[in-house]
Amino acid sequence: MEEKKPVIRVKDLYKVYKVGDTKVRALNGVSFDIYRGEFCAIVGASGSGKSTLLNMLAGLEKPTKGEIVIAGEHMETKSENALVAFRRNHIGFIFQSFNLLPTMTAVENIALPLTFQGMDKEKRTKLAKQAIKMVGLQKYSRHKPTQMSGGQQQRIGVARALVVNPEIIFADEPTGNLDSKTSEEIMGLMRKVVVENNQTLIMVTHDNHLAEYADRIFHIKDGKILKIEDKRLMRQTGT
Amino acid sequence: MKFRDLLRLSTSNLFKRKLRTILTILGVTIGVASIVVMVSLGLGLSRSVTEEMSNYGSLTSVEVRDASSGYYYMGEDSQDVDENKHLDDDAIEELKALPNVVDVIPMLSIDVMIKSGAYEGNYITLYGVPDGYLESQNVELASGTYPSENGGVPSILYGNMILSQMYNEKTQSGYWYDGVIADVDLMNDPVTFILDQDAYWQYQVGETGEDGTVPQMPKKHLFETSGVIAGGPDEYSSYSYYMYCNIDDLKAVLKRNFKNKAIPGQPTTKSGKPYKQLYYSQLKVMTDTMDHVSDLQKEISSMGYSASSDAEWISQQQKTMGYIQLVLGGIGAVSLLVAAIGIANTMMMSIYERTKEIGIMKVLGCDMRNIQGMFLIEAGFIGLIGGVTGLAISYGLSVTVNFLVANMAGDMGISGGISYIPLWLALMSLVFAVFVGMLAGFFPSLRAMKLSPLAAIRNE
């Protein structure tokens, strides 16, 4: 695995916000590599810069300085429309508040990214049905989001992120709006998906316990990476 | 993103907020209806004025007269007039070859005297026209038939004002003197014609001619009547003052009557001698539309003919009508402007409401142009539905107005109604409504396109 090129390479990343006259360094020189098939958790307290880091990796925000290379492409130089196109084809996204469109059924919601790609209705519905089967909600295909529980909605959210078969999936506090039992279920599901499909998943959370599901844990504080824990090594050594 | 998916997304967004969509559409409906109704009133007005004008003469023809006949017209450009251009069959062929010319109608005319019982009329123009001409000009008859070829003896169609030009020879009583209309039944009473009026007056005075001949009473002709043009004694139209017969009949009778003498109104050689041939006294050059009349007149004049038309008067009238339509359309446009602001407002509201939704779409990779397109389609759809309903209402109003006007003024001669919606107006208003809708939605759509995707990440 180590010989492989990284899926994500971040080098000397800075993000500076201006709040009034004072400059706030949300990210203060961050560098790391992430490889294919890894499940990484970015953990930190509120205001540590973890969300900023995720936003920049997903191309939702521009870095002040530094490089982000995803699947061989530089994100920091892309125009907004190019970033949108990049996300459309390479990235899946799981939100904290699920963010399903209320007027659409579960399958239509899952198929939405494919719709944006311009895929035929027949084809995208077929793929969406495969994805909904993967998260175990076939029975709810024709339900609207309001007719489903939070956990079910997030399962649909996971399916939506998976349906385009992206290089990377980003998850922003995916269990933030769920109770602990459902959270465990969702984490188990994401873990399963990563292993089965050899997907790369990057999750942001403030919950150290949930981060335990990941292969590697990035601890972040005041815009800097404090340490990177490798759970695989720990599991191997049995601690 | 496929256009069909975009369309589906947009329409479902409109359906989601039914009441607001309906209210916005209502605004457009009122705007479109007011524009269409206003313009239709202008068009109806202009149409009835045009119909009115066509009673005074053909609006699509140019009259060509013999340059040496001594007729002059106001506004006529006589610089190019060629004294040697006479109106014969060659001239007809020449004029027919001009662009936009549909037909050339030859006419022969002579001023004659008519007598019936105690009544007589002087210097009344008798026109010889080809068969079918009067029918094609939609001249309405009160009785009888149109004149047709009658073997060299003209049968006469009388204008409805002929009787008012006749007076009683003995009492000098006449329509223009004391309002008493000549008591002649043109259809049944015999009417005699004197074609050579000069000779008649010379005979009356008893004057001896230059060559010493004693004047003779000129020949009287008894022509049968074919019909009378519809209308009262003072109801003017361009046909009411004149008499009409077949042109070949008139030629024949003139040749017989005058033999070798000069026929009044015919061109003569420089020495005053008549030509052997009978020339037409005027040609009516018919063109296809009013717009071509003015250019055609100029072209014919430049060829050396003496040409005249109602073009200038018509264009003046059209200009006035254009202003009226502009003002009426402008009034309607104000309400459509208000409707457009309504659309813009609705779209802005919609964007604020859907900030998160738009953010999600952007995170999930929806192309920015698709987002803009979605809002433009929504705005255009509001315009389209508003346009269709507005148009339907306009047709309803138009029918109602015309019905009411027809009831009130049915016998005032207003035909076709005062509101008139031609197909082009209907189509234009639809296109315009969609265009205005999209224009109103354009800036909101730009705004939607530029919204930050971070809105989707924020948690409320």
Topology:
The complex is a heterodimer of chains A (239) and B (460).
Chain A: E1 8-19, E2 22-34, E3 39-43, H1 50-57, E4 65-70, E5 73-74, H2 80-90, E6 91-94, H3 106-117, H4 121-134, H5 150-162, E7 168-172, H6 180-197, E8 200-205, H7 208-211, E9 216-221, E10 224-230, H8 231-237
Parallel strand pairs in A: 3-8, 3-9, 6-7, 7-8
Antiparallel strand pairs in A: 1-2, 1-4, 4-5, 9-10
Helix pairs in contact in A: 3-4, 3-5, 4-5, 5-6
Chain B: H1 3-16, H2 18-54, E1 61-65, H3 89-96, E2 101-116, E3 119-129, H4 133-136, E4 141-144, E5 155-158, E6 167-168, H5 175-178, E7 192-194, H6 197-205, E8 220-222, E9 224-229, E10 243-246, H7 247-258, E11 282-287, H8 293-302, E12 306-308, H9 311-353, H10 355-363, H11 368-409, H12 423-450
Helix pairs in contact in B: 1-11, 2-9, 2-11, 2-12, 9-10, 9-12, 11-12
Descriptive report:
The complex is a heterodimer of chains A (239) and B (460). Chain A has 239 residues and is of the alpha/beta class. Helix content of chain A is 36%, strand content 28%. Chain A has helices spanning 50-57, 80-90, 106-117, 121-134, 150-162, 180-197, 208-211, 231-237; strands at residues 8-19, 22-34, 39-43, 65-70, 73-74, 91-94, 168-172, 200-205, 216-221, 224-230. In chain A, the strands form 2 sheets. Chain A has a 6-stranded mixed sheet. A 4-stranded antiparallel sheet of chain A has the order 2-1-4-5, covered by helices on one side. In chain A, helix 6 links the parallel strand 7 (168-172) and strand 8 (200-205). In chain A, helix 5 (150-162) packs parallel to helix 6. The model of chain A has no long low-confidence stretch (mean pLDDT 90). Chain B has 460 residues and is an alpha+beta fold. In chain B, strands 1, 2, 3, 4, 5, 6, 7, 8, 9, 10, 11 and 12 form a 12-stranded mixed sheet that branches. In chain B, strand 2 and strand 3 (119-129) form a beta hairpin. The longest helix of chain B is centred in the last third of the chain and has 43 residues, at 311-353. Classes of the chains: A alpha/beta (239), B alpha+beta (460). Chains A and B meet through helix 2 and helix 3 of A and helix 1, helix 10 and helix 11 of B.
